[in-house]
Amino acid sequence: VAGAVAGAAAAGWLYVRHQKERRQRSRRLRDLRALALGQGDFQLRDTAGTARSKADFLGRWVLLYFGFTHCPDVCPEELEKLSRAVELLERDPALPPVQPLFVTVDPERDDEAALARYLRDFHPRLVGLTGTPEQVRAAAAAFRVYVSAGPRDADGDYVVDHSVLTFLVDPDGLFRDCYSRSRTAEEVARSVRGHMDTYEPLPL
């Protein structure tokens, strides 16, 4: 009898915990919708010069990073980390593929050819996106990414200060999470897997 009571109590506790987790996920989803991060569409071009919008990536998980090719250290490090996280996820064939994206914040120097050269050193499926200054500003604003070009030196060179974050977007095009510079590739991959495990498609 005592065992039956204990079993029933454990089952009840697990049910309550499950319901609490579901409520927390639903509340987080509502909060993310309210923030509207990344909800606005973007109109950019890939390295082949093809027009791309957010709609082109619906149905896929996306890891997105904003940066620029002349960045001396932070952007290469973050893209290496992003590539590593995607590779870790690719080791499990049961998981859906993740599309890595890089959006430049320096369209003046980062045209299609410059992006294509730069991205060769990273994940082979990493898609680079650029556009007019107005298009790039709109894309950054959709994710509330801070961007500010610094002063030019004697050679006309400059750096671009920007938010250092990698964004996770789900197959519905909804912002799910973001990862700062302090997160490792392993932590990013583990978090993405967790979101995949709990993902529920939005009703049509």
TrEMBL record:
<feature type="binding site">
    <location>
        <position position="71"/>
    </location>
    <ligand>
        <name>Cu cation</name>
    </ligand>
</feature>
<dbReference type="InterPro" id="IPR036249">
    <property type="entry name" value="Thioredoxin-like_sf"/>
</dbReference>
<dbReference type="InterPro" id="IPR003782">
    <property type="entry name" value="SCO1/SenC"/>
</dbReference>
<dbReference type="GO" id="GO:0005743">
    <property type="term" value="C:mitochondrial inner membrane"/>
</dbReference>
<dbReference type="GO" id="GO:0033617">
    <property type="term" value="P:mitochondrial respiratory chain complex IV assembly"/>
</dbReference>
<dbReference type="GO" id="GO:0046872">
    <property type="term" value="F:metal ion binding"/>
</dbReference>
<dbReference type="Pfam" id="PF02630">
    <property type="entry name" value="SCO1-SenC"/>
</dbReference>
<feature type="binding site">
    <location>
        <position position="75"/>
    </location>
    <ligand>
        <name>Cu cation</name>
    </ligand>
</feature>
<protein>
    <submittedName>
        <fullName>SCO2 protein</fullName>
    </submittedName>
</protein>
<feature type="domain" description="Thioredoxin">
    <location>
        <begin position="33"/>
        <end position="197"/>
    </location>
</feature>
<dbReference type="InterPro" id="IPR013766">
    <property type="entry name" value="Thioredoxin_domain"/>
</dbReference>
<keyword id="KW-0479">Metal-binding</keyword>
<feature type="disulfide bond" description="Redox-active">
    <location>
        <begin position="71"/>
        <end position="75"/>
    </location>
</feature>
<comment type="similarity">
    <text>Belongs to the SCO1/2 family.</text>
</comment>
<feature type="binding site">
    <location>
        <position position="162"/>
    </location>
    <ligand>
        <name>Cu cation</name>
    </ligand>
</feature>
<keyword id="KW-0186">Copper</keyword>
<keyword id="KW-1015">Disulfide bond</keyword>
